[in-house]
């Protein structure tokens, strides 16, 4: 029996029909300097998270010409990073080892603002959705940043979340060595021991547990920790793939509980504590001074306080074998005194 040949247009038609499927299933394709404009915020998150969820959790060692990278995720409502000159010094000579992502406040279709870093670092703006304290919007922003960084570069092995008021306390090689020395890799995220009296008002901030947190998150597994952290690639994928806990934490807090509602301090510690506590250090590399807590904000350092002694003090940790690599919260006016001691103290190996 003779098989009839396909019409000449049939192969072309099949190829065209398969292109959307190929694009969707592709584990990695480069993002533009600013991600694609998507009007509906939930569509943006679903689009990024769905694609990132398809990526492999395994990270194979690349050749020496393509070493693994650290993705720096700046979570800010403004594209202006007051300490970008200091971060530029921190990144200098290490551009092949870093990726930079900025949660931009510029909504589409407006063009992105001028980049706060040299184009040699290839920083990327991530289209933002408005964020506010006491809401799950900050969690959504971090998940969006993680998904974008996972998709953008398969060499991103660690993901460090920073605020615009953060500064480095040590040179880049010290930070790089801290992350890549342990095997298997660890995530540096604070997960504090449970404190029932402190945690329960936060646990019920969304309403009765029976209709909000349970059964997925019993109180015995509810945790708190720092908002800023460094996650391994495996844990970054765990976050973007999560749906079960996110359905609970995305519920709005009660108006009467806003003083106890800090979802971003609970979602990530709770998720990782429940899923993979052995691969978490329970220590954040970010030094935050809560001794002068003002309206939920940590101590804000002023220019008069900046000194070599302050930097050396902030590096030390009394509760861990690790030392701090970053610190917050510094006022923008601290830039010049910090630059004055950058080469001699902050970025000097000791």
Automatic annotation (TrEMBL):
It is found in: Membrane. Its main location: membrane. It comes from the Eukaryota. It is a single-pass type II membrane protein. The keyword Transferase applies. One of its GO terms (molecular function) is glycosyltransferase activity. InterPro entries: BC10-like, Glyco_trans_14. GO terms for cellular component: membrane. Keywords: Glycoprotein, Glycosyltransferase, Membrane, Signal, Transferase. Residues 1-24 form the signal peptide. The keyword Lipid biosynthesis does not apply. This is Glycosyltransferase BC10-like. It comes from Dioscorea cayennensis subsp. rotundata.
């Amino acid at each position: 029996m003779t098989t009839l040949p396909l019409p000449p247009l049939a192969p072309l038609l099949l190829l065209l029909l398969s292109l959307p499927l190929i694009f969707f299933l592709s584990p990695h394709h480069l993002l533009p300097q600013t991600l694609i404009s998507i009007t509906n915020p939930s569509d943006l998150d679903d689009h990024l998270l769905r694609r990132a969820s398809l990526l492999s959790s395994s990270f194979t060692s690349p050749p020496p010409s393509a070493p693994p990278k650290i993705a720096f995720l700046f979570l800010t409502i403004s594209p202006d990073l007051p300490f970008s000159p200091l971060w530029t010094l921190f990144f200098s000579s290490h551009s092949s080892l870093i990726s930079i992502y900025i949660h931009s406040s510029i909504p589409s279709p407006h063009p992105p603002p001028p980049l706060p870093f040299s184009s040699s670092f290839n920083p990327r703006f991530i289209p933002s959705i408005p964020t506010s304290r006491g809401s799950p919007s900050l969690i959504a922003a971090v998940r969006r940043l993680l998904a974008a960084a996972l998709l953008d570069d398969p060499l991103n092995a660690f993901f460090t979340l920073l605020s615009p008021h953060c500064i480095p306390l040590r040179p880049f090689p010290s930070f790089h060595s801290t992350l890549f020395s342990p095997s298997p890799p660890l995530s540096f995220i604070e997960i504090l021991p449970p404190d029932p009296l402190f945690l329960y008002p936060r646990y019920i901030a969304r309403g009765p547990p029976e209709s909000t947190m349970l059964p997925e998150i019993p109180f015995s597994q509810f945790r708190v920790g720092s908002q800023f952290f460094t996650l391994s690639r495996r844990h970054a994928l765990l976050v973007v793939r999560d749906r079960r806990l996110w359905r609970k934490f995305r519920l709005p807090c009660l108006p009467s509980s806003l003083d106890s509602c800090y979802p971003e301090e609970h979602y990530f510690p709770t998720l990782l504590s429940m899923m993979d506590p052995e691969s978490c250090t329970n220590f954040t590399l970010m030094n935050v001074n809560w001794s002068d807590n003002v309206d939920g904000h940590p101590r804000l350092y002023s220019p008069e306080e900046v000194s070599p002694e302050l930097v050396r003090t902030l590096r030390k940790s009394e509760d861990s074998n690790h030392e701090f690599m970053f610190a917050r919260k510094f006022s923008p006016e601290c830039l010049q005194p910090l630059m004055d001691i950058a080469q001699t103290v902050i970025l000097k190996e000791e």
